[in-house]
Amino acid sequence: MKFRTPSADGILASLIPILSPPKPPGADARLGLRITCEAISEPGVRGGGSEVVAASQEPQGLQGRFLASQEPQAGEFQSATVPITCTSCQHQPSAPGGFGGDNIGINEANIPSAEGVLNFIALKYFKIVDPSKREERNDFLEYLKEVRQVLYVDAQTGSLIITVECSSLEILEGLWNDYCTGHLNEMAQKFLVTEDILKEFGLIEVKLTTTILEEEYIACRGYFLQHSAWDVLPINEIGLHSPRTPTRERLEEMSSDNQRLQLSIEQKNGKIRSLEYKVLELEESLGSSHLLQQNIKQKDEKVTSLNQVIQEREEKLAELENRLEDAQARNHKLTHSLKIKEDKITTLEESVETLDDLVSETDKLNLLKDEKIKALEN
């Protein structure tokens, strides 16, 4: 009986399934964030809806290089990006010609378009920043990175591509829970729609809606459930996986315990990051409260100053009222004195009239006397 000697290629081909390391968890656990935008310039006027597709990319992009395209896999949709050098978790590609001018996002009817607003958001808030400068960092990216563990965000004209790759089922469930409760959309609305956006386009409101496709979430969840049972097999002297032994059973138990411990650690780390983020929000709120207290203090000082002015004017008014009362009292006295004098004048006038009558009678008597004297003389 002749035995066929296997070739080297055949031996290598048979060893590849054994020697090949398992795909790292999370390699296919990618989700696409789809953001729709509605721009409102004035009551009754809407700029229409536009969509920004957030797609996933290889996590190696965090090291500074990204593929121009990649093959679509289950649970994700294909996208294309431009090569870009990564220096932080926030990036901004160079704007092409004609983009970012004075009329960015303005259509022929002179109404801001939703696509233009999204392009402006992509170029303004997803750019290269200095991570050490808090004012330059995008709070939405901070939320995704620190709380939800987003690996990379790439902004380019026409679309906003966000890579979301979960490294564990806990992280995936946390992101999905934020989406289902609306918290993810609230964070996008809070941190991406700012006063700068509204002022730039003369808008009164911009509404963002973030969507995660359920089939993509199910595909990612299925991936984690499928790979949750993978254990690292012990290696024998020739570098191959050894068969199942009691030692292997123990290693499987230890690996399972390690996985549970790792999930617990990741969950606690996620909670810690969430608490840190909440502390940051509280500190910002405290800063706002401090400013509010300063404003209230300034207003209280102004009120105190106004109260002093009012008190001074009330004192002056009281003084004027006292002077008015004194003047009225003097006027009353003068009026009374004038009345007495008028009464005296009336009495004197009556006396003068009486004297005038007496003088007239005296003149008459004197005249009669003279006439009688003349008559006696004759």
Automatic annotation (TrEMBL):
Domain named TRADD-like N-terminal: residues: 140-196
Sections of the chain in a coiled coil: 251-358
InterPro entries noted in UniProt: TRADD-like_N
UniProt entry keywords in alphabetical sequence: Coiled coil
Domain of life of the source: Eukaryota
Protein name, entry field: TRADD-like N-terminal domain-containing protein
Organism: Desmophyllum pertusum
